[in-house]
Structure formats: C-alpha cells, structure tokens
C-alpha cells in the first residue's frame, strides 16, 4: 500500500533554514516497502524523487518539482561487538543527536564530538557530518542501502562509502541513486579517549575544569560551545556551517599567512592545509551583514541565517556575494555545504 501523498505541501518547517518552499508532492516512508511503493509511483508519473531527512542540509527552492520523500526509518538495536565496544544498528531516520545522547548515557563514548549536530543519521552519513575533530565516518562500520533501479539491498563498508571532508560516495552521481536505510556504528571501545585537541574545545574544558577523558564532560563542553557560537534553528533559521573550510596547498597557505598572519589554518597530510572559512568571511567584512531577509550571524561568520520570510533566491544571492568577495581578496574559492534544491 502506497503511503499518503500530499500535493502542494509546505516544506517551510521541515528544513532548519525555514525557507519558504512548497513540494509539488510529498510523502513519508517508514519502511523499505513504503520506499518501493513511492518510487514506483514516481516512476509511473515520470517525476524525480528527492529524499529529505532532518532538513539540516537542504536549501529548498520556492517550488520543488517531483516527489519529496522524508525518510522516516527509525529504530536502534544494540549488541556487543566481537572486536570490542558496542555495535549499533540505527535507522536512517533517527535523529543523530538522539543517538549521541543515548550512547553517552549508557556509558559508551565515541560520539561526544557530534553532540547537538542537527539532522538524521542518514543525512549525517551522506555529508560525513563532523564537529570538533570528530566525523561520522570514524564511528561507522557499514551502511545498508537500497538501489531503487535494481531493488538490491546491500551493505557498504566505510571504504566503499569513500568518505572525505564533508562528502561521501552518496554525493556522487552514482551514489545519489542509493537510499540509505540503516547504519552500523561502533561506540564504547575502551581504549579510545575523546578527541579534545580542537582549540576551542580544549579551552572550554580547561575553563570548566572538566575531565577531558570523560565522554560526558566532553559532550557537555561541546553543547556549551555550540550554544554560544551557533544560532538555534528553532529560534532563527540556519543550516549550520554554510561553507566548507577550503583546502589549499602548503605554498598557497604560506603566501596567505605572509599577507594575513592571523589566518587560522589546520595542517593536513599530503602537503595540504585547511583554512578556516569563517575567518576568511569575517575578514571579507560579512560577519553580521544583513541582506534583506537573510544575513550572516553576528556570532559566527560561517553561519548564514534566515531573518524571516526568506527563500532560496535570497540565500543564493548572499552566497554568491560572499564567494565572490573571498575569491577576490584571498584567491580562495568557498564551497557551500548544503544541497540546493532548485
């Protein structure tokens, strides 16, 4: 039986940016059977399918053509992992922060750096979401996916997922065809200590006098940092970090540091350097900038916000203005993190 399909459905409250947007057709899938029925319906009508999780990484246009399907597969199973720690099997529609909280309350560390990251588990896998030195890929063992074209269900290893900085195989043309159903996570491996070498996190732990080896203490510090720096989407619409931190060669980084000694950099392997996009945007004069119904956060230049009543065109105009200004001043091209549904 095909789940209920709504027409001209308002998506405004289903994305964290809260942009004015309407889906031509919208439905929710709570099972693989629901997904099969909805994709079959879309095929008959010759229309595209767009998958929606927690809406934390989507900039939806005023009208979204085709069928929008919110992936609502939930549930979490737990068992001991044969190589140590706990193995979790988590539905793609589960909120990532709920999983973080549950595991830490059980005493299983590993995901504390991801505390308060918005969105679902499925969306976090696609994006390889990360914060304060921790990425989803580091706690992931496998991903179960469904291919609507072949009806094949299979498990993919982390190697097959081809994770990178805020990317994965699921952001490629071939990978975009796959629907994530469940994810296998590993937490609570005793030898692992929380990552606390991220500068702001280390300072927060030192300030509070918390034990940096205690996952719950690290989680609390991460939540405190995010609450101070990042606007709450429930109060003001945003998609979190809007731009990726650009990666450049060591030669380019040295040139920039000569002209801008305060530039924030993070050395990487392979003679590459990651630059702090927020610093670049702030130095380009955009921190706190307002352009009609959209703007840049006054607390963090990496966050674009919806001041009220904005749509995707407003966001794209500000995005393009920032990208052009940073490119002109620093010779560095910024790449947005969110997906744009035009």
From TrEMBL:
Cofactor(s) demanded: FAD
A Pfam family recorded for this sequence: MurB_C
GO annotation, biological process: cell division; cell wall organization; peptidoglycan biosynthetic process; regulation of cell shape
Location relative to the cell: Cytoplasm
Gene Ontology molecular function terms on file: FAD binding; UDP-N-acetylmuramate dehydrogenase activity
Pathway note: Cell wall biogenesis; peptidoglycan biosynthesis
EC code: 1.3.1.98
Domain (FAD-binding PCMH-type): residue spans on this chain: 19-190
Keyword list, A-Z: Cell cycle, Cell division, Cell shape, Cell wall biogenesis/degradation, Cytoplasm, FAD, Flavoprotein, NADP, Oxidoreductase, Peptidoglycan synthesis
InterPro entries: FAD-bd_PCMH, FAD-bd_PCMH-like_sf, FAD-bd_PCMH_sub1, FAD-bd_PCMH_sub2, MurB, MurB_C, MurB_C_sf, Oxid_FAD_bind_N
Presence of the UniProt keyword Flavoprotein in the record: yes
Active-site residues (renumbered): 166, 241, 337
Catalytic activity: UDP-N-acetyl-alpha-D-muramate + NADP(+) = UDP-N-acetyl-3-O-(1-carboxyvinyl)-alpha-D-glucosamine + NADPH + H(+)
CC terms in the record's Gene Ontology section: cytosol
Known role: Cell wall formation.
Family: Belongs to the MurB family.
Protein name: UDP-N-acetylenolpyruvoylglucosamine reductase
Organism encoding this protein: Sutterella parvirubra YIT 11816
Top-level taxonomy: Bacteria, Pseudomonadati, Pseudomonadota, Betaproteobacteria, Burkholderiales
């Amino acid at each position: 039986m095909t789940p209920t399909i709504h027409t001209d459905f308002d998506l405004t409250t289903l994305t964290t940016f809260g942009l004015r947007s309407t889906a031509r057709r919208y439905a929710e899938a709570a099972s693989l059977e629901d997904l099969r029925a909805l994709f079959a319906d879309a095929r008959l009508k010759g229309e595209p399918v767009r998958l929606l999780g927690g809406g934390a990484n989507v900039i939806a246009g005023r009208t979204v053509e085709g069928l929008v399907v919110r992936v609502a597969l939930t549930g979490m199973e737990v068992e001991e992992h044969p190589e140590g720690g706990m193995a979790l099997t988590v539905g793609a529609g589960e909120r990532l922060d709920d999983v973080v909280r549950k595991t830490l309350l059980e005493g299983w560390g590993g995901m504390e750096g991801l505390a308060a990251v918005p969105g679902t588990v499925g969306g976090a896998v696609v994006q390889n979401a990360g914060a304060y030195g921790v990425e989803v890929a580091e706690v992931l063992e496998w991903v179960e996916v469904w291919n609507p074209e072949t009806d094949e269900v299979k498990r993919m290893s982390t190697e097959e997922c081809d994770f990178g900085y805020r990317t994965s195989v699921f952001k490629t043309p071939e990978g975009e065809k796959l629907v994530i159903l469940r994810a296998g996570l590993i937490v609570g491996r005793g030898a692992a200590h929380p990552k606390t070498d991220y500068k702001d996190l280390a300072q927060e732990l030192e300030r509070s006098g918390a034990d940096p080896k205690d996952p719950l203490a690290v989680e609390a510090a991460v939540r405190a940092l995010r609450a101070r720096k990042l606007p709450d989407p429930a109060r003001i619409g945003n998609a979190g970090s809007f731009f990726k931190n650009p990666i450049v060669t060591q030669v380019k980084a040295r040139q920039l540091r000569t002209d801008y000694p305060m530039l924030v950099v993070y050395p990487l392997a392979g003679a590459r350097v990651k630059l702090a996009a927020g610093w670049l945007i702030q130095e380009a004069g955009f921190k706190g900038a307002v352009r009609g119904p959209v703007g840049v956060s006054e607390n963090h230049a990496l966050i674009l916000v919806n001041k009220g009543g904005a749509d995707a065109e407003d966001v794209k105009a500000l995005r393009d203005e920032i990208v052009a200004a940073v490119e002109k001043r620093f010779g560095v091209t910024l790449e947005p993190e969110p997906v744009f549904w035009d």
